[in-house]
Amino acid sequence: MSGTIVGVRSLGSTNQPFLKVEQPPPHLLAGRPIVREIIQHGLTAEKLGAEILRLINNPRFTTELGTVFSAIHTDLRRDANRAAAAAVLDLVGRNGD
């Protein structure tokens, strides 16, 4: 499954991205390529437009992509905050012992 877009391009001389990805890229979370990444100066209006048209014109692909992203979302919501806190407490020996 090839994918859609994650775009990052520097703005002016500040070199700050207009899109900041806080989570790992979706292909790492899914364990396979699912989105096409267009980064830095590779992100152009033409490339973005072509990808948007590809999505609009392929409803089966967008449905499949939605299923993949829903599975990633479900996987990420497994009470990660509580699990991380428990791991830290285990590490320092304060987890209800």
Outline of this structure?
By secondary structure, this protein is of the alpha+beta class. Helices cover 49% and strands 14% of the residues.
Structural features, described:
- The protein has 97 residues and is α+β, with helices and mostly antiparallel strands.
- The protein has one domain (4-92).
- Helix content is 49%, strand content 14%.
- The protein is built from 4 helices and 4 strands, in the order βββαβααα.
- The protein has helices at residues 26-30, 45-56, 59-76, 80-92; strands at 4-8, 10-11, 16-17, 35-39.
- It has a two-stranded parallel sheet with strand order 1-4.
- Strand 2 and strand 3 form a beta hairpin.
- The longest helix has 18 residues, at 59-76.
- 3% of the residues are buried.
- Residues 1-6 have low confidence and may be disordered.
Topology of this structure?
Layout: E1 4-8, E2 10-11, E3 16-17, H1 26-30, E4 35-39, H2 45-56, H3 59-76, H4 80-92
Structure keywords:
97 residues; two-stranded parallel ribbon; two-stranded antiparallel sheet; 4 helices
Q: What is the domain tally?
A: 1
User: Which residues sit in consecutive blocks of at least 5 with pLDDT less than 50?
Assistant: 1-6
Strand order of the largest sheet: 1-4
| Biggest sheet features | 2 strands, parallel
SS-based class: alpha+beta
